[in-house]
Amino acid sequence: MKPEFFQKTVQLNPEKSTGKLRVSKLCELIDSHPYRDEIYSSFKISEIQDEIICIDYIDLVYERVKYYNENYNRSFIYAQVKDIDVYDDEQIIEGEINTDIIFNFEEYVEIDEVKNNLRTIAIYDAKNTFLDSYEMTKYANNLFKIREGALARQNIQYFKEKAKTNSKVNKHKSYRLVEYNSQFYLRGITSINKYFEYGVDFTFVVSMLILHQNMKYKDGVEYTIRSAALNESKLDIIVSEKFLKDAGAFGSISTAVKISTNDLGQGSLSFSNILSVGRIEKGFFIYRRKSEVEKNKEIIPHTTKPENVFSTFNNMEGVLNTSDEFIQELNEIKSIKTPDELRVKILAKIKNPRSALKGITKLSDIFKRKIDNEISSFAKLIEMCENAEDLEIEYDLKDKLRYIISDIMLYGG
């Protein structure tokens, strides 16, 4: 993956944030969005455009979303298999071999105009999605890996030639592109009329408007953004309430919401109720198991039509305001009184040979020190989890760690 498409964490520096953003400025992010009018209508933007949204660090995340909007131009084209040439392109950059997979569209349709010869570089899972159609992903990827790209191209070329006379092979798809620094990249391959992409800008604007509404209707509710990571196609934000509640041995907790979108992933939009454990400025997060979050999560699939999306935003009570129920769950599991057993299980999961976290020494070091198996020692375990949350590691790895800790804390692993 090229560095310019990595999902990067936003540095939440209180000295650089006002924690305020006018609704009208927030909505500038969607000025060119295809569903702008629907957002304006659903949230009655004309009536609230001068209101100030007060959420800690909202302005910093806004600037990052704005950067991607201004520098990464997303679009899509339609093309048929018979008109696509796929091959690898090797270049030596600073003494190292760099291999790109090229999708050259010999003929394609942009809006309603037929065009020719567009060279794109495949990123994310675009290459594998294409190869999956022929059940040759593993085979072709191995050929690319051992620098036998010419043989992989011969196999792909066979299907391209077959597509010229066989309509079943000649699949017609939508190819999702992004232009960055005058170079086109292929982000993903989807169906033509059954796939709806809402985007990072849409998700950020809508989620901040939802939280703004909730603060207006719920006295005393205030929010702070605790974590934010994004690229041009993917956004993950954790927002927690500032008001803390007592959870016994777990200390102070607050309701939090994990907001995610992945333009080319399984869910277009998702809002999940989670818990922030510990202090507002330093703590960690507990997630429920995916099989148990139906009533505490709203997922909008890519197949959801725009006219059906906005009704979901009016029914977010189960996502935004459920900390009391979660506290009860914590009080039930802490009665186990075995904090060191939980520590050992967390460490074992991290050091498992199949774990993506196994090579992060500074992480395993946090959980190495033995603690007493007394209920009072939960504070030490919580401190370990807080220190793990503070580590600067890739976002995907950080999220895996959160799921490991949550699964062991809530369910014993």
Characterization of the model:
It contains 15 helices and 16 strands. By secondary structure, it is α+β, with helices and mostly antiparallel strands. Helix 4 (58-71) packs antiparallel against helix 8 and helix 6 (137-145) packs antiparallel against helix 7. It has helices at residues 23-26, 36-42, 45-48, 58-71, 126-132, 137-145, 149-163, 199-217, 306-309, 317-320, 323-334, 339-351, 361-366, 378-390, 395-411; strands at 8-9, 20-22, 52-56, 73-80, 84-93, 96-110, 113-122, 172-180, 183-190, 223-230, 234-241, 245-246, 252-262, 267-278, 283-286, 297-301. Strand 12 (245-246) and strand 13 form a beta hairpin. The protein has three domains: 3-71 and 197-320, no CATH class; 74-190, no CATH class; 336-411.
Question: What would a concise description of this structure say?
Answer:
It contains 15 helices and 16 strands. The chain is of the alpha+beta class. The chain has three domains: 193 residues, no CATH class; 117 residues, no CATH class; 76 residues.
List keywords for this structure.
413 residues, 10-stranded mixed sheet, 15 helices, 6-stranded mixed sheet, 3 domains, globular, alpha+beta, 16 strands
Number of strands: 16
Structural category: alpha+beta
- Main sheet record: 10 strands, mixed
What proportion of the residues is helical, as a percent range?
Answer: 25-40%
> What does the radius of gyration come to?
24 Å
SSE layout:
Elements lengths: L7 E2 L10 E3 H4 L9 H7 L2 H4 L3 E5 L1 H14 L1 E8 L3 E10 L2 E15 L2 E10 L3 H7 L4 H9 L3 H15 L8 E9 L2 E8 L8 H19 L5 E8 L3 E8 L3 E2 L5 E11 L4 E12 L4 E4 L10 E5 L4 H4 L7 H4 L2 H12 L4 H13 L9 H6 L11 H13 L4 H17 L2
Parallel strand pairs: 3-10, 7-9
Antiparallel strand pairs: 1-10, 2-3, 4-8, 5-6, 6-7, 8-9, 10-11, 11-13, 12-13, 13-14, 14-15, 14-16
